[in-house]
Write a structure and sequence with these properties.
119 residues; seven-stranded mixed beta sheet; mainly beta
Length: 119
């Protein structure tokens, strides 16, 4: 079994910064990709950023130039540095890991962390 543990959410003023962390642990696995999604009540969960094992990144347009996804391979951890935060970034942020486990690809999700941008 694989667990994803997130941290780093909270309340921040507009223009501020936060860094989210997501650590994967558990059964033997290798990472195909890890990323972050977010969801607000009444809307579908949307992709924020993804980082593949090959180092490719993809960001949703609304966060380009403000958010940066990175990883620490030794710690099986992915980070999301969020700068110049806006009220519309308020959401529950979920970590996603697409992992090779026992020869097959599976998706795993974190528990979610609340990010609130408000003055």
């Amino acid at each position: 079994q694989v667990q994803l543990v997130e941290s780093g959410g909270g309340l921040v003023q507009p223009g501020g910064s936060l860094r989210l962390s997501c650590a994967a642990s558990g059964s033997r696995f290798s990472i195909n990709a890890m990323g972050w999604y977010r969801q607000v009540p009444g809307k579908q969960r949307e992709l924020v950023a993804v980082l593949t094992s090959g180092g490719r990144t993809n960001y949703t347009d609304s966060v380009k130039g403000r958010f940066t996804i990175s990883r620490d391979n030794a710690k099986n951890t992915v980070y999301l540095q969020m700068n110049s935060l806006k009220p519309e970034d308020t959401a529950v942020y979920y970590c996603n890991a697409n992992l090779w486990v026992y020869g097959g690809l599976s998706d795993y999700w974190g528990q979610g962390t609340q990010v609130t941008v408000s003055s």
